[in-house]
Amino acid sequence: MRQDPAHSHMVATGGKENALKLWDLQRSEQPVFRAKNVRNDWLDLRVPIWDQDIHFLPGSQKLVTCTGYHQVRVYDPASPQRRPVLETTYGEYPLTAMAVTPEGNSVIIGNTHGQLAEIDFRQGRLLGCLKGLAGSVRGLQCHPSKPLLASCGLDRVLRIHRIRNPRGLEHKVYLKSRLNCLLLSGRDNWEDEPEEPQKPNNVPEDTETDELWAALEAAAKRKLPDAGPRGTVQTGKIKKKRSRSPVP
After folding, report:
1. Under 8 Å CB-to-CB from 160, ≥6 apart: which residues?
2. Does domain 1-89 have CATH number 1.10.3470?
3. CB 155 within 8 A of CB 169
4. Would you kindly state where each structural domain of the chain is located, as residue ranges?
């Protein structure tokens, strides 16, 4: 599931044997757009559906998806055609993650064998590849203004690649656990803790608490019903007198 960053009430969904659908959360009875499967292959067999990732293209109503059958597809809900308006393939392994570049003219895809590639979805051609990953790619995100790509996967390493010439690996950090997703923060100093709001100086007194303590003090000063003159309870025992027998 992916939310449209330009229109927060629009959501796209997809999955295994679950075709791409576009939903309007303000009227969610029926999807706004329901994609149609591609035509049968050259053997006249049905092509299976397995959308792994979805992204909205900036500045348009189009969506791009990557599938578990190494396909990249572009859909246009504004057109009467419900099938993809563009389709291309990359490699022979399932595609697991995708990110749109800052220019919005291409996407970077990753597969289960740690391969990264940039695809121009306007012409469906390969622009270049990125190296360095050793496991399945699970998370990709491009920087909004700089030519940088953050990636993570099952090889437990977070990497930063430069996606414009010269292409290459900039940084990498070993994070010990298998990584499934990542997110670029919008804060510059995210390590600084936010300041706590200051309390106002004129704080009204809690009258209910004062009344409660006064009632408890009054109850503690009360005397017990069987108390003596000083307020202490008498607990003395009464001794019985024994009868003495006469001495012979």
Report:
1. 148, 149, 150, 169, 170, 171, 172
2. no
3. no
4. 1-89, 90-185
